[in-house]
Amino acid sequence: MSWKTLDDMDLRGKRVLVRVDINVPVENGRVTDDTRIQRIVPTVHDILAKGGKPLLLAHFGRPKGKRVQDLSLLVVKPALEAALARKVVLAETLEAAETGTEEIAAADVVLLENIRFHPGETANDPEFAQRLAGLGDVYCNDAFSAAHRAHASTEGLARLLPACAGRLMQAELSALEAALAKPERPVGAVVGGAKVSTKIELLENLVNRLDLLVIGGGMANTFLAAMGAQLGKSLSEPDFFDTAKDIMAQADKAGCRVLLPVDGLVAREFAAGADHEVVQLGPDTVLDDDQMVLDAGPDTVELVQNAFAGLKTLIWNGPMGAFEIAPFDTATVAAAQAAARLTRDGALISVAGGGDTVAALNQAGAADDFTYISTAGGAFLEWMEGKTLPGVAALGG
Ligand code: ADP
Ligand code: MG
User: Fold this and answer.
1) 53-57/15-19 β-pairing
2) pTM exceeds 0.85
3) Region 199-226 average pLDDT
4) Is the pLDDT reported for residue 236 higher than 90?
5) Buried b vs exposed e over 202-228: b needs ≥16 C-beta within 10 Å?
6) Residue 38 and residue 22: Cα distance in Å, rounded?
7) What are the φ/ψ torsions at residue 94 (nearest 5 degrees)?
8) Which of 70, 209, 221, 282 has its CA 20 to 30 A from that of 86?
9) Which ligand is the nearest neighbour of the Cα of 360?
10) Known catalytic residues?
11) d(Cα 241, Cα 250) in Å, to the nearest integer?
């Protein structure tokens, strides 16, 4: 943990370039979910409190290096002003930010127009980064969710100015380090979701670091089928049977216990309220051709809950079933609530991430009790895969 934080920086009278992620969903010209905006508030407030002047750098959508009026950050400005309880001035061009209009000079907080309007951003062009660096004295990166990309505003700038992590970046890195880099043991994970193919590197990294791995969701079908089960029309990836076997062997070698479902909720159609039955699962299971496993069953839930009780740290990525359609959210909800309860009681450190995972934990009413919920998506996964994130590495971490 060698990165600096805002506490290490003298910001009095300094212009602070702050990379933030305010790439929020917008419908009919209005922000529909301001979570990402709320999460940068502590950083901006702390910079102001330390006498610094924040200039926010952010992307919005994928304009591919051209000015696209529909992707102007103007639409985000009102929500940003509401969250910060301050006026924000949008610098529409780099030139405006460089010459500094009266309005910009007088503003507490300046927001630079969509950084991806410039081709130099995603290309991490050194000249463009140099030009950005000219706008500030200090660089603060608060966009962990963009840290897996080596762009000018996420990586290049950190090499040109004194650099530090913002509060959200700091919280995210601390939580991830507590979960996987230096966890309190025993440490376990739930890895669920649809496919093995999208999470091979995650599984490989985790089995070499964890004491317990719970495999759930559609990917558990691939593991069971690789061992000989015939699971009808269940989601399963025959091309990855060898991968599944290989991961089991690696886990065995590394001393990581793997928990696969021992029963499941089986239906004949993928629909809410579909007729279903509980079926025991194992290498000898043979389902009808039109049957599919859509969720883990009650015995599995009990095994998982008991396993959680023996852990000090839990990482969660991917739901244990097709949680969007009831009742196939049952196992995910029950397991999430068990993890939430243990966390509330102070017995467990719980860290979760992934788009569908966050939705599922919210659905279970468990999200607030988890120690940390990452909204970083791709960056969270790459970190859990053991990859170096360029934006973090550039901070010296
Ligand atoms: P995350 O976004 O949290 O990383 P994933 O995208 O990997 O999670 O997986 C979530 C998806 O997996 C959900 O849409 C869910 O319906 C699906 N899923 C989980 N279990 C099953 C299953 N048994 N059969 C079909 N789909 C499943
Ligand atoms: Mg997903």
Assistant:
1) parallel
2) yes
3) 97
4) yes
5) bbbbbbebbbbbbbbbbbbbbbbbbbe
6) 9
7) -60, -40
8) 70
9) 1
10) 36, 195, 355, 378
11) 14
User: What is the DSSP-derived secondary structure letter of residue 286?
Assistant: B
Residue 1 has pLDDT above 90, yes or no: no
Closest of 12, 124, 133, 111 to residue 55, by C-alpha: 111
Q: Tell me, using a 6 A CB cutoff, whether residue 326 lines ligand 1.
A: no
Is the Cβ–Cβ distance between 84 and 38 less than 8 Å? no
CA pair distance 158, 164, nearest whole angstrom: 8
Q: Which residues pair with 277 in a beta bridge?
A: 266
DSSP 215-260: E-HHHHHHHHHHTT-B-TT-S--GGGHHHHHHHHHHHHHHT-EEE-
* Two tokens, residue 151: 């762009």
pLDDT of residue 375: 85
* 194 close to ligand 1 (CB < 6 Angstrom): yes
What pLDDT was estimated at residue 397? 66
| Distance in angstroms (rounded) separating the CA atoms of residues 380 and 213 | 18
**Strand partners for 26:** 31
Using CA atoms, how far apart are residues 197 and 384, in angstroms rounded to an integer? 16
Q: Could you give the domains of the chain?
A: 6-170 (3.40.50.1260), 183-384 (3.40.50.1260)
CB distance 354 to ligand 1 below 6 Å: yes
The tens digit of pLDDT for each residue in 114-150 reads 999 999 999 999 999 999 999 999 999 999 999 999 9
Residue nearest to atom 5 of ligand 1 (CA): 193
Tell the residue nearest (CA) to atom 9 of ligand 1: 193
Which tens digits make up the pLDDT trace of 337-347? 999 999 999 99
* pLDDT value at 357 more than 90: yes
